[in-house]
Amino acid sequence: xxxxxxxxxxxxxxxxxxxxxxxxxxxxxxxxxxxxxxxxxxxxxxxxxxxxxxxxxxxxxxxxxxxxxxxxxxxxxxxxxxxxxxxxxxxxxxxxxxxxxxxxxxxxxxxxxxxxxxxxxxxxxxxxxxxxxxxxxxxxxxxxxxxxxxxxxxxxxxxxxxxxxxxxxxxxxxxxxxxxxxxxxxxxxxxxxxxxxxxxxxxxxxxxxxxxxxxxxxxxxxxxxxxxxxxxxxxxxxxxxxxxxxxxxxxxxxxxx
Length: 257
Prior knowledge:
With 257 residues, this protein is mainly β. It contains three helices and 14 strands.
């Protein structure tokens, strides 16, 4: 199956081997679930006059590569500002929740500015293989090209990526779904610690957008700060080929293996 999920019926999905994360063969990477929740937010009472400008995913527990269910609802309706929410459940318990602010569209082209500089395109980045200790699955379901750093290196990192598989079988993912599937990798792209000695799992993912992403190739330019008491923060600037589209942040729980 060349997809992260197969839809069994509306709102119910079979997880495929492509969802498996690098930490454990028994745990999904949170990129695909984040994208699946975002798909639910986009499809929840959709409107042409608004756009999702912030999506936050809260991770409530580890998710095995099992059957999942997703539901969504409008939490706070509004003409210019609207909040939508989605929940992913597995084996009878909630595993992740997402919140999305939809903002009314307006013409601000004449005052647009303030974003970071555009990155060199993916054609100028280097394809590199993941280190053997990183479990395949999700990592192999994306094509990676590196401008700075790598999965086996410690420090800030900048990587382009595009999905090699669909999010849901038979569908073309939206650019925002692609972005959410990629942005959750920021703490791996900008790892400061030895993967074989430390765990640095994110408990959330927030993506703030100042414009809609476009295309298949998306980039994360990230860095991580580790505190002295078991917590860290990974922050990133998110790009498409035209330049920055927004920023991401993740809180990390950091502990020895």
